[in-house]
Protein: Nucleolar complex-associated protein 3
Amino acid sequence: MAGLAVSKKRKVAQFLNDQAPNGTSAKRNGKATINGKADWDEEQDYEQRARKGKKKSEKEGPQRLPIKTPEGRIIQVEADEDRLDQQAPGSNEEDASNDGELGDSDDGSEMQEIEPAKPKKSERQRLLEAKEELATLASSVNEEPEENYQQLRRIQELFDSETSLTIKKLILLTQVSIFRDIIPGYRIRPLTSEELAIKVTSDIKKLRNFEQSLVSSYKVYVDNLGRLSRTVGGQLCPIAISCTCTLLETVPHFNFRQELLKIVVERLSSRLIDDSFVKCRDTLEEFFRQDESGTGSLEAVRMIIKMLKAKDYFVNESVLNTFLSLRLLTELNVKASYDTIDEQAPKMKKKDRVPLTKKEKKARKELKAVDAQMREADAVVVYEEKERNQSETLKAVFLTYFRILKEKKPSLTGATLEGLARFAHLINVEFFSDIIGALRELVEDARKEAEGDEDEEEDDNSDSVQRERNLRREALLCIVSAFSLLADQANEAKGLVNIDLSFFTTYLYSVLLLLSLSPTIELSSKSLHLADPTSDETVEIPSSKVNKATEIEMLLRSLDVVFFKAPRGTGEISSARVAAFTKRISVAALQLPEKSCVTLLTSLQNLSKKHSRKVHPLFVSEDRVGDGTYDPFIDTPELSNALAGSAVYEHALLANHYSPKVREQSKLVLKSAASSR
Structure:
């Protein structure tokens, strides 16, 4: 240590001794010296000296701009040496100066070269890469949902940042496939503050994180579907509606079911009938058929009714026909109207209950709570809750039907009548008078149209509405609905049903001849039909409202409910009425086409078998006393006097019909009527 201190002092002393007497340092060739040696800062000359750069021919890397090939690829072209030699003389100096600024330093660092721009990818290449990335993300989530649920957010970010519509469609379809596979079989509820404060194990915490992240990602996806589905005409709208229908069919029990139903009902409110509309309608019908608890059906029915009111009932009739797919048609056993429901079985009276101690009451209460939690976990449907939901749904449906009948909405009247006929066994007896009154008004409108007694002051709009409604067809539906109501309730009402339906029977008798002369009796709105080229008048095919049934089918249904399914409470059918219908059906059969004629004669054969004694005098030639003459033009069957010496001679003409089927069926009618007494 002593030697080191002495050497330091010696160096300092030598530096001081080398100084000039006048305080200035000696100069040697303009450089400062210490003890006659070169200055300690002698490397400054080297640093300030200009760097010698490489020639351009010696430099590595391309010197030309990239070019784009006809195939769309971007490549880099290398510079030619001959072109580099012909450069300007001062270019080497500039390159040397630039290389001096960016050249290698003494510490051995290499010169940083500027990388060329990456070539732009083609649309096909981007699509392939997107498919691979989405497949990788979807596989990772499906394999370990609780570990890789963060990838759901990554997929949503890809959708938000993507500009290609094709790739966006792939992302939407990938998301619905993932959610359909990883969504559990129960509904996830938000955690309470007490549950969050409790310490749980790592497995439970992991499960909670997965569930909450799943719900949040699913909510973002459903909101995105709702936004896209409202852009009617957009390219992503059909994909969004298809994904919504898929989720509603596969996971209707999960969260945000109301949002999915809202998307479907909003699409059904449109008058545009396309593939998306049909998809939503079919999905809603399937949802009604698969709903066991009735909660989802009640929500959907209320949304549909709210939409109908907002649209003033100007929607497609197939929307109202979705009510015919409700499970309550076959499962519900109560009677209801639009404001009341029959009371359930009375509860046990207090005096009949078994007395329990406080301890037993507490144990029973705890057991009920545990059972409720177990049912919720196992998704067990409680019968009482199901019946309550279905009863509320039935009330809402009846209220809608009755309002449409009262307001006479042209586009939904036929569907309403068909619905009433299907729901007849669930309608309360006190509700009959209102429904029969509404049905009678519709039949009265059809009768006035047939007689030509409508007011001449009605404008063209009302006439078009009448033609659109097809009042004759609606009247036949009214007859079917009225008799179906009483037929289904007569046995349970036990004599309380005593409503006169002769008004409907009279109309059916009056419309028989008009239907036999109709050129479209075997045609529906789906039938292919060409107008007569020799006729100046255009034949309008009636737009069938429900099930696309033809007029002859509606006529056969009406005859069936009047003569074969009539309730006992309506009284026995008189002989005059049966004889008048037999005579008029035989007259109408002469004008009908072959198929319609055969079916109507089959119905007449069944009528003659059931009421053989009442129609027997029409088919025999025995002498008998008659009072008055037969009037074929009167529209009241009891006043036509069909039994007063009239015979069914029409079958003699039908025996010579060109069709062998008609001839054979006419012989069967004569045989069954003449052989019975």
Notes: The longest helix spans residues 202-229. The chain has a mean pLDDT of 76.
